[in-house]
Amino acid sequence: MRIAINAQLLSYSDTYRNGGISRYIRHLLNAIARQPGQHEYTVFVNGEETVSRLRQEQGQAAQVAYIPVHWPENRPASRVLWEQRDLPALLRERRIEVFHSPANVLPEMLPRECASVVTLHDLAFLLYPEVLTRAKRVYHRIFTTRSLRRATAIIAVSNSTKEDAVKLVGIAPGRIQTVYTCIDERFSNVITTEEKQTFCREHGLDGGYLLYLGTLEPRKNILTLLEAYRELREVYSRKEKLALVGGKGWLYDDIFAKAQRLGLVSEVLFPGYVSNEEQLLWYHGASAFAYPSLYEGFGLPVAESLACGVPVVTSNVSSLPEAGGDSALMVDPLDSHALAAALQRVLTDTRLRQRCVELAPTVFRRFSAQVMARQTIAVYEKAAALHRARRQKRETTRAR
After folding, report:
1. Which of 32, 51, 99, 252 is an S-S bond match for 216, by CB 3.0 to 4.6 Å?
2. Whole-prediction pTM value?
């Protein structure tokens, strides 16, 4: 079967664009390259450099062909125009049988013979529109909603996201398959105690640190985390630093202003975007991981931290209980007192900390690349069969 994937949002840049959706696409492509099944893949990516980086990670994947398309990352309108105007003709030319958009939106004019699969990451634009810029809200309200209603099959990155699509967009549950995002294979690498100590020493973090890793943007609820961190220092007399690791996304100025207003400038680190390799050291070196997001489609950093054996405090809303499983502590994300108390517990509860270390391999296996690839390919095959059956039914009806 001929399958095409629109991987235009895969980015290797040192910005927030190399965040959640980009990492999902990268993990998916690497997983499929290792176990492609009986299919041929055409993958559209942004530029020759992206092709080169993928080939370095994958080696020679005979069943995967990469087609570079060039557009400036700081001009997303160029990408949208290409997806809507040029991409359908390329799919027709290559006689693609299944087209997968791994980032919420399908082209409006897909070839009639082509089944469509779309991955839905979240519906924040409907549930929390205030945390997005106006341009993002308008784009998703128009294109994501229409794509969900038109797709042959939908992949949701969590059961919570699937339920949101059913309730908010009216999608039939049978059209949606949950496929969890995988944890990258590099998380199985062993980081020695000496490596962790060296890393902490080089960053001035010998006294330990609490970690947040993700884009700096309103939905991540970092303002409440800063309030909880101040309470942790004042009420519980903790001395660990707080590292807010990640690229600047949008509407982030309040985060820096809040840290200054609370008198935490010398205690809070903003390392900015860090490479995939360095992320591992940030995770492993942390005393605890905090992720009090208001809403997540999945919440991969929670699973990644647990796969490193680091205790986690996260929110009890949306998909985060799925990512955290039985290992993470969960609190109301708007309750800074509960967040501070939970952080104090994961820092001091020896039994809980040891249990996180013991469960780390189980978390890694649960969100493995092999499972993600196998389940995604099964959705492709199901979508193709369903699309063929629908076309045959329409042709039979017309013949009568």
Report:
1. 252
2. 0.90
